[in-house]
Protein backbone atom coordinates (compact mmCIF):
# COMPACT_ATOMS: atom_id res chain seq x y z
CA UNK A 1 0.00 0.00 0.00
CA UNK A 2 1.65 3.18 -1.22
CA UNK A 3 0.68 6.82 -1.61
CA UNK A 4 1.94 7.88 -5.03
CA UNK A 5 2.12 11.47 -6.26
CA UNK A 6 0.45 11.95 -9.65
CA UNK A 7 -0.40 14.82 -11.94
CA UNK A 8 -4.02 15.96 -11.71
CA UNK A 9 -6.22 15.73 -14.78
CA UNK A 10 -6.23 19.27 -16.18
CA UNK A 11 -10.01 19.27 -16.70
CA UNK A 12 -11.26 17.33 -13.70
CA UNK A 13 -13.19 20.25 -12.20
CA UNK A 14 -15.08 20.80 -15.45
CA UNK A 15 -15.75 17.07 -15.63
CA UNK A 16 -17.01 17.10 -12.03
CA UNK A 17 -19.44 19.90 -12.90
CA UNK A 18 -20.55 18.05 -16.05
CA UNK A 19 -21.37 14.92 -14.03
CA UNK A 20 -23.06 16.72 -11.15
CA UNK A 21 -20.26 16.28 -8.60
CA UNK A 22 -21.05 19.60 -6.95
CA UNK A 23 -19.44 18.91 -3.58
CA UNK A 24 -15.86 18.25 -4.77
CA UNK A 25 -14.95 21.39 -2.81
CA UNK A 26 -16.72 22.18 0.46
CA UNK A 27 -16.47 25.39 2.46
CA UNK A 28 -13.50 26.43 0.36
CA UNK A 29 -11.57 23.27 1.19
CA UNK A 30 -10.81 20.45 -1.26
CA UNK A 31 -12.82 17.29 -0.69
CA UNK A 32 -11.96 15.35 -3.85
CA UNK A 33 -8.17 15.25 -4.35
CA UNK A 34 -6.11 13.66 -7.11
CA UNK A 35 -2.61 15.05 -6.64
CA UNK A 36 -1.85 11.51 -5.46
CA UNK A 37 -3.45 8.07 -5.39
CA UNK A 38 -3.20 4.96 -3.25
CA UNK A 39 -1.61 1.96 -4.90
CA UNK A 40 -2.48 -1.60 -3.83
CA UNK A 41 -1.42 -5.03 -4.95
CA UNK A 42 -4.10 -7.57 -5.84
CA UNK A 43 -3.15 -9.62 -2.76
CA UNK A 44 -3.80 -6.59 -0.51
CA UNK A 45 -7.19 -5.97 -2.10
CA UNK A 46 -8.11 -9.63 -1.61
CA UNK A 47 -7.18 -9.27 2.07
CA UNK A 48 -9.56 -6.28 2.39
CA UNK A 49 -12.28 -8.07 0.42
CA UNK A 50 -12.09 -11.26 2.50
CA UNK A 51 -12.11 -9.34 5.79
CA UNK A 52 -15.10 -7.27 4.65
CA UNK A 53 -17.12 -10.35 3.71
CA UNK A 54 -16.36 -12.10 7.00
CA UNK A 55 -17.02 -9.02 9.15
CA UNK A 56 -20.36 -8.45 7.46
CA UNK A 57 -21.51 -12.01 8.19
CA UNK A 58 -20.42 -11.55 11.81
CA UNK A 59 -22.49 -8.36 11.99
CA UNK A 60 -25.57 -10.24 10.76
CA UNK A 61 -25.07 -12.75 13.58
CA UNK A 62 -25.17 -9.81 16.02
CA UNK A 63 -28.56 -8.77 14.56
CA UNK A 64 -29.85 -12.30 15.04
CA UNK A 65 -28.84 -12.20 18.69
CA UNK A 66 -30.05 -8.66 19.49
CA UNK A 67 -33.56 -9.03 18.05
CA UNK A 68 -34.15 -12.00 20.40
CA UNK A 69 -33.27 -10.03 23.53
CA UNK A 70 -35.22 -7.21 25.20
CA UNK A 71 -32.14 -6.45 27.27
CA UNK A 72 -29.96 -5.96 24.20
CA UNK A 73 -32.59 -3.95 22.33
CA UNK A 74 -32.58 -1.60 25.31
CA UNK A 75 -28.76 -1.64 25.44
CA UNK A 76 -28.73 -0.52 21.80
CA UNK A 77 -30.98 2.40 22.82
CA UNK A 78 -33.79 1.39 20.46
CA UNK A 79 -37.03 2.87 21.86
CA UNK A 80 -39.35 0.18 23.20
CA UNK A 81 -42.26 1.18 20.94
CA UNK A 82 -40.04 0.37 17.92
CA UNK A 83 -38.85 -3.07 19.06
CA UNK A 84 -41.47 -5.07 17.18
CA UNK A 85 -40.96 -2.93 14.08
CA UNK A 86 -37.23 -3.70 14.08
CA UNK A 87 -37.78 -7.38 14.86
CA UNK A 88 -40.37 -7.77 12.10
CA UNK A 89 -37.98 -6.26 9.54
CA UNK A 90 -35.47 -9.00 10.39
CA UNK A 91 -38.00 -11.79 10.74
CA UNK A 92 -39.48 -11.05 7.31
CA UNK A 93 -36.01 -10.68 5.75
CA UNK A 94 -36.53 -7.13 4.51
CA UNK A 95 -33.95 -6.59 1.76
CA UNK A 96 -31.02 -4.21 2.12
CA UNK A 97 -29.11 -2.23 -0.49
CA UNK A 98 -25.62 -1.28 0.68
CA UNK A 99 -23.29 -0.52 3.57
CA UNK A 100 -19.72 0.60 4.27
CA UNK A 101 -17.24 -0.76 6.80
CA UNK A 102 -14.57 1.66 8.00
CA UNK A 103 -11.26 -0.17 8.29
CA UNK A 104 -7.75 0.56 9.52
CA UNK A 105 -5.30 -1.10 7.12
CA UNK A 106 -1.62 -0.51 6.40
CA UNK A 107 -1.14 -3.05 3.63
CA UNK A 108 0.62 -5.51 5.95
CA UNK A 109 -1.40 -6.28 9.08
CA UNK A 110 -4.99 -7.60 8.99
CA UNK A 111 -7.63 -4.90 8.42
CA UNK A 112 -9.34 -3.82 11.66
CA UNK A 113 -12.99 -2.74 11.91
CA UNK A 114 -13.54 0.73 13.35
CA UNK A 115 -17.31 0.87 12.72
CA UNK A 116 -20.09 -0.14 10.37
CA UNK A 117 -21.94 2.52 8.38
CA UNK A 118 -24.83 0.21 7.60
CA UNK A 119 -27.72 2.68 7.54
CA UNK A 120 -26.81 5.97 5.81
CA UNK A 121 -23.32 5.63 4.29
CA UNK A 122 -22.13 8.50 2.10
CA UNK A 123 -19.02 9.04 -0.10
CA UNK A 124 -20.74 6.61 -2.47
CA UNK A 125 -20.79 8.65 -5.67
CA UNK A 126 -17.12 9.51 -5.54
CA UNK A 127 -16.16 5.91 -4.70
CA UNK A 128 -18.44 4.17 -7.22
CA UNK A 129 -18.35 6.58 -10.15
CA UNK A 130 -15.93 9.49 -10.06
CA UNK A 131 -12.82 7.55 -9.05
CA UNK A 132 -13.51 5.09 -11.89
CA UNK A 133 -13.56 7.99 -14.33
CA UNK A 134 -10.23 9.09 -12.84
CA UNK A 135 -8.75 5.62 -13.47
CA UNK A 136 -9.90 5.52 -17.09
CA UNK A 137 -8.63 9.04 -17.78
CA UNK A 138 -5.23 8.43 -16.18
CA UNK A 139 -4.72 5.18 -18.11
CA UNK A 140 -5.71 6.94 -21.34
CA UNK A 141 -3.25 9.76 -20.57
CA UNK A 142 -0.44 7.26 -19.98
CA UNK A 143 -0.03 8.25 -16.34
CA UNK A 144 -1.03 4.78 -15.15
CA UNK A 145 -0.05 1.48 -16.81
CA UNK A 146 -2.55 -0.06 -19.22
CA UNK A 147 -3.10 -2.99 -16.85
CA UNK A 148 -3.98 -0.81 -13.85
CA UNK A 149 -7.27 -1.77 -12.21
CA UNK A 150 -9.45 -0.66 -9.31
CA UNK A 151 -11.42 -2.54 -6.65
CA UNK A 152 -14.70 -1.11 -7.85
CA UNK A 153 -17.71 -2.93 -9.24
CA UNK A 154 -20.02 -0.77 -7.16
CA UNK A 155 -22.10 0.84 -9.90
CA UNK A 156 -22.61 -2.45 -11.68
CA UNK A 157 -23.65 -4.14 -8.41
CA UNK A 158 -26.03 -1.29 -7.48
CA UNK A 159 -27.80 -1.53 -10.84
CA UNK A 160 -28.04 -5.32 -10.47
CA UNK A 161 -29.47 -4.92 -6.97
CA UNK A 162 -32.12 -2.42 -8.06
CA UNK A 163 -33.10 -4.82 -10.85
CA UNK A 164 -33.47 -7.62 -8.26
CA UNK A 165 -35.59 -5.39 -6.03
CA UNK A 166 -37.90 -4.89 -9.00
CA UNK A 167 -38.08 -8.46 -10.29
CA UNK A 168 -37.64 -10.56 -7.13
CA UNK A 169 -39.02 -8.31 -4.40
CA UNK A 170 -41.83 -6.63 -6.31
CA UNK A 171 -40.66 -3.01 -6.08
CA UNK A 172 -42.69 -1.24 -8.78
CA UNK A 173 -41.97 2.33 -7.65
CA UNK A 174 -39.19 3.41 -5.28
CA UNK A 175 -39.28 6.78 -3.57
CA UNK A 176 -35.94 8.37 -2.63
CA UNK A 177 -35.58 10.90 0.18
CA UNK A 178 -33.01 12.95 2.04
CA UNK A 179 -33.04 16.12 4.12
CA UNK A 180 -33.14 19.55 2.57
CA UNK A 181 -29.99 21.71 2.45
CA UNK A 182 -27.55 18.79 2.32
CA UNK A 183 -25.72 18.94 -1.00
CA UNK A 184 -23.68 15.80 -0.40
CA UNK A 185 -26.75 13.76 0.61
CA UNK A 186 -28.69 15.06 -2.36
CA UNK A 187 -25.84 14.07 -4.68
CA UNK A 188 -25.71 10.58 -3.18
CA UNK A 189 -29.45 10.09 -3.56
CA UNK A 190 -29.45 11.44 -7.12
CA UNK A 191 -26.72 8.95 -8.03
CA UNK A 192 -28.69 6.06 -6.53
CA UNK A 193 -31.81 7.21 -8.34
CA UNK A 194 -29.84 7.19 -11.61
CA UNK A 195 -28.74 3.61 -10.88
CA UNK A 196 -32.36 2.60 -10.21
CA UNK A 197 -33.42 4.19 -13.48
CA UNK A 198 -30.66 2.28 -15.30
CA UNK A 199 -32.14 -0.90 -13.79
CA UNK A 200 -35.60 -0.04 -15.10
CA UNK A 201 -37.02 0.70 -11.64
CA UNK A 202 -39.34 3.71 -11.59
CA UNK A 203 -38.56 6.29 -8.93
CA UNK A 204 -39.68 9.57 -7.38
CA UNK A 205 -37.69 12.00 -5.24
CA UNK A 206 -38.92 13.99 -2.26
CA UNK A 207 -37.35 15.57 0.79
CA UNK A 208 -37.83 13.89 4.16
CA UNK A 209 -39.61 17.03 5.30
CA UNK A 210 -42.23 16.54 2.54
CA UNK A 211 -43.42 13.10 3.67
CA UNK A 212 -47.06 13.31 4.68
CA UNK A 213 -49.44 11.07 6.61
CA UNK A 214 -52.57 9.82 4.83
CA UNK A 215 -55.98 9.27 6.38
CA UNK A 216 -55.36 5.54 6.82
CA UNK A 217 -51.91 5.95 8.32
CA UNK A 218 -49.93 5.54 5.11
CA UNK A 219 -47.01 7.81 4.30
CA UNK A 220 -47.60 9.95 1.21
CA UNK A 221 -45.58 12.13 -1.16
CA UNK A 222 -46.43 15.72 -2.25
CA UNK A 223 -48.58 14.29 -5.09
CA UNK A 224 -50.59 12.33 -2.49
CA UNK A 225 -49.21 9.06 -3.85
CA UNK A 226 -48.91 6.36 -1.19
CA UNK A 227 -45.26 5.54 -0.45
CA UNK A 228 -44.84 1.76 -0.56
CA UNK A 229 -41.04 1.55 -0.95
CA UNK A 230 -38.71 4.25 0.34
CA UNK A 231 -34.95 4.74 0.28
CA UNK A 232 -34.16 7.31 2.94
CA UNK A 233 -30.76 8.83 3.61
CA UNK A 234 -31.89 9.62 7.12
CA UNK A 235 -30.79 7.74 10.27
CA UNK A 236 -33.09 5.31 12.01
CA UNK A 237 -32.07 6.64 15.41
CA UNK A 238 -33.53 10.02 14.39
CA UNK A 239 -36.72 8.47 12.99
CA UNK A 240 -37.33 6.35 16.10
CA UNK A 241 -37.46 9.49 18.21
CA UNK A 242 -39.85 11.55 16.07
CA UNK A 243 -43.59 11.92 16.52
CA UNK A 244 -44.52 9.76 13.52
CA UNK A 245 -42.38 6.84 14.78
CA UNK A 246 -45.54 5.37 16.31
CA UNK A 247 -46.90 5.05 12.75
CA UNK A 248 -43.90 3.16 11.32
CA UNK A 249 -45.24 -0.31 12.05
CA UNK A 250 -48.59 0.23 10.34
CA UNK A 251 -47.54 2.40 7.39
CA UNK A 252 -46.84 -0.56 5.10
CA UNK A 253 -43.55 0.83 3.79
CA UNK A 254 -40.59 -1.29 2.73
CA UNK A 255 -37.55 0.70 3.76
CA UNK A 256 -34.08 0.91 2.34
CA UNK A 257 -32.22 0.53 4.53
CA UNK A 258 -34.48 -1.84 6.54
CA UNK A 259 -35.03 -1.18 10.24
CA UNK A 260 -32.76 -4.04 11.33
CA UNK A 261 -29.85 -1.94 10.06
CA UNK A 262 -30.43 0.24 13.15
CA UNK A 263 -28.65 -2.50 15.10
CA UNK A 264 -25.44 -2.76 13.09
CA UNK A 265 -25.10 0.96 12.36
CA UNK A 266 -24.96 1.49 16.13
CA UNK A 267 -21.56 1.57 17.89
CA UNK A 268 -23.05 -0.89 20.40
CA UNK A 269 -22.31 -3.39 17.63
CA UNK A 270 -18.60 -3.26 18.48
CA UNK A 271 -18.71 -4.63 22.06
CA UNK A 272 -21.14 -7.33 20.92
CA UNK A 273 -18.79 -8.40 18.12
CA UNK A 274 -15.87 -8.57 20.55
CA UNK A 275 -17.93 -10.63 23.01
CA UNK A 276 -19.16 -13.03 20.31
CA UNK A 277 -15.87 -13.28 18.38
CA UNK A 278 -13.14 -12.54 20.95
CA UNK A 279 -9.64 -11.89 19.59
CA UNK A 280 -10.79 -12.13 15.99
CA UNK A 281 -7.96 -10.75 13.81
CA UNK A 282 -10.21 -8.13 12.18
CA UNK A 283 -11.70 -6.80 15.44
CA UNK A 284 -10.54 -4.32 18.05
CA UNK A 285 -11.15 -4.96 21.74
CA UNK A 286 -14.38 -3.12 22.62
CA UNK A 287 -16.69 -2.70 25.63
CA UNK A 288 -19.67 -0.71 26.82
CA UNK A 289 -18.32 2.15 28.94
CA UNK A 290 -20.96 1.44 31.61
CA UNK A 291 -19.75 -2.16 32.06
CA UNK A 292 -16.45 -1.28 33.78
CA UNK A 293 -14.15 -2.26 30.90
CA UNK A 294 -10.67 -3.56 31.71
CA UNK A 295 -8.01 -0.82 31.73
CA UNK A 296 -6.33 -0.04 28.41
CA UNK A 297 -3.42 2.37 27.95
CA UNK A 298 -4.69 3.54 24.56
CA UNK A 299 -8.35 3.59 23.59
CA UNK A 300 -11.10 5.51 21.82
CA UNK A 301 -14.35 6.65 23.42
CA UNK A 302 -17.30 6.70 21.00
CA UNK A 303 -21.00 7.56 21.48
CA UNK A 304 -23.44 4.90 20.30
CA UNK A 305 -24.85 7.21 17.60
CA UNK A 306 -21.87 9.34 16.61
CA UNK A 307 -21.62 10.39 12.94
CA UNK A 308 -18.75 11.95 10.99
CA UNK A 309 -16.44 11.53 14.00
CA UNK A 310 -18.54 13.69 16.33
CA UNK A 311 -17.94 13.43 20.11
CA UNK A 312 -15.09 10.95 19.69
CA UNK A 313 -12.09 11.10 22.04
CA UNK A 314 -8.75 9.34 21.54
CA UNK A 315 -6.64 8.45 24.57
CA UNK A 316 -3.05 7.35 23.89
CA UNK A 317 -0.84 6.15 26.74
CA UNK A 318 -3.24 7.70 29.23
CA UNK A 319 -3.37 11.15 27.59
CA UNK A 320 -6.09 12.60 25.36
CA UNK A 321 -4.51 13.26 21.95
CA UNK A 322 -7.62 14.11 19.90
CA UNK A 323 -11.30 14.95 20.33
CA UNK A 324 -14.20 16.19 18.24
CA UNK A 325 -17.22 18.15 19.39
CA UNK A 326 -20.80 17.27 18.55
CA UNK A 327 -24.33 16.62 19.80
CA UNK A 328 -23.98 12.95 20.79
CA UNK A 329 -23.18 11.04 23.96
CA UNK A 330 -26.28 11.09 26.18
CA UNK A 331 -27.39 7.76 24.75
CA UNK A 332 -24.28 5.98 26.05
CA UNK A 333 -20.68 5.32 25.07
CA UNK A 334 -18.42 2.47 24.07
CA UNK A 335 -14.67 2.08 24.59
CA UNK A 336 -12.62 0.63 21.74
CA UNK A 337 -8.94 -0.30 21.63
CA UNK A 338 -6.98 2.41 19.81
CA UNK A 339 -5.46 1.30 16.51
CA UNK A 340 -3.55 4.16 14.85
CA UNK A 341 -4.31 4.68 11.18
CA UNK A 342 -1.35 4.49 8.78
CA UNK A 343 0.34 7.84 8.28
CA UNK A 344 1.44 9.11 4.89
CA UNK A 345 3.35 12.41 4.98
CA UNK A 346 1.31 14.52 7.41
CA UNK A 347 -2.01 12.70 7.02
CA UNK A 348 -3.78 9.60 8.36
CA UNK A 349 -5.67 7.30 6.00
CA UNK A 350 -8.92 5.38 6.49
CA UNK A 351 -10.41 2.79 4.13
CA UNK A 352 -14.14 2.60 3.52
CA UNK A 353 -14.97 -0.88 2.24
CA UNK A 354 -18.32 -1.13 0.45
CA UNK A 355 -20.87 -3.91 0.17
CA UNK A 356 -23.88 -4.06 -2.11
CA UNK A 357 -26.40 -6.83 -1.51
CA UNK A 358 -24.06 -8.33 1.13
CA UNK A 359 -21.15 -8.60 -1.33
CA UNK A 360 -17.87 -6.63 -1.04
CA UNK A 361 -17.48 -4.56 -4.20
CA UNK A 362 -15.13 -1.60 -3.76
CA UNK A 363 -13.23 0.81 -1.55
CA UNK A 364 -12.81 4.53 -1.06
CA UNK A 365 -10.01 6.23 0.89
CA UNK A 366 -10.24 9.26 3.15
CA UNK A 367 -7.32 11.31 4.42
CA UNK A 368 -7.06 13.81 7.24
CA UNK A 369 -4.28 15.62 9.06
CA UNK A 370 -6.25 15.03 12.25
CA UNK A 371 -6.52 11.64 13.94
CA UNK A 372 -10.33 11.65 13.68
CA UNK A 373 -11.83 11.27 10.20
CA UNK A 374 -14.71 13.73 9.75
CA UNK A 375 -17.11 14.89 7.03
CA UNK A 376 -14.57 17.19 5.32
CA UNK A 377 -11.73 14.65 5.29
CA UNK A 378 -10.26 14.43 1.80
CA UNK A 379 -11.17 11.63 -0.64
CA UNK A 380 -8.36 10.08 -2.74
CA UNK A 381 -8.69 7.54 -5.59
CA UNK A 382 -6.87 4.21 -5.69
CA UNK A 383 -5.54 1.72 -8.18
CA UNK A 384 -4.44 -1.92 -8.21
CA UNK A 385 -1.00 -2.38 -9.76
CA UNK A 386 0.83 -5.67 -9.28
TrEMBL record:
Signal peptide coordinates: none
Keyword Iron set for record: no
Domain Glutathionylspermidine synthase pre-ATP-grasp-like: 12-384
Pfam family, any one: GSP_synth
Annotated keywords: ATP-binding, Ligase, Magnesium, Metal-binding, Nucleotide-binding
Entry GO MF terms: ATP binding; ligase activity; metal ion binding
Highest taxon above the source species: Bacteria
Record bears the keyword Zinc: no
Protein name (Swiss-Prot/TrEMBL): Glutathionylspermidine synthase family protein
Organism per entry: Rouxiella silvae
Taxon lineage: Bacteria, Pseudomonadati, Pseudomonadota, Gammaproteobacteria, Enterobacterales
